[in-house]
């Protein structure tokens, strides 16, 4: 659908009443699309957005490795009549659908990708107007958050950045890391050696929220009322134990 000048977001992406079930989305980016639909439906229902989804697999799909229905085979009964079955799968599984839990690490990865993406607007665009080192040198000349001053690690070596530069560098660096084929080579599994990045990403993102809450309270409250992004981030961190809560 072509986007025309002056169109509202609601016209381009109308609000959906009910997100489809996960197994109804046939896409190589199934989790990403499912998460996007949940947020479009209600960005404030953070528990539903963050909770690990479950897909259901029919008995025949489970028997066939999830690649399609089992093959029907015929057999002759004692009375000469022909009976069909699906490789005996329905009888083996009791004819009921089996729940299939999504991989937790992959789900957290998709959540972090989405949170970084959702920082762009209205959070970053609003902070770029308010977080000015010249107008507010005491709070924004450096990245101050919770009585700490943080150095920026996006320069090869740590150095001091003003707050808005730290925020932009953090979001850019996190995006590059999450899209790195070296650390995250697949969207279907996360290497064990890459799990350590979830904690460091969460810590750096938390500093942005803390800085906004302490020094730009009006921006924080307005953006949070629109997106519930901090509530979603906090729920994610608590649910999957990504970082110590005392830093939030």
Automatic annotation (TrEMBL):
SMART domains: Mob1_phocein. Residues 61-84 are annotated as: Disordered. SUPFAM superfamilies: Mob1/phocein. Keywords: Metal-binding, Zinc. The keyword Zinc applies. InterPro entries: MOB_kinase_act_fam, MOB_kinase_act_sf. This is Mob1/phocein. It comes from Meira miltonrushii.
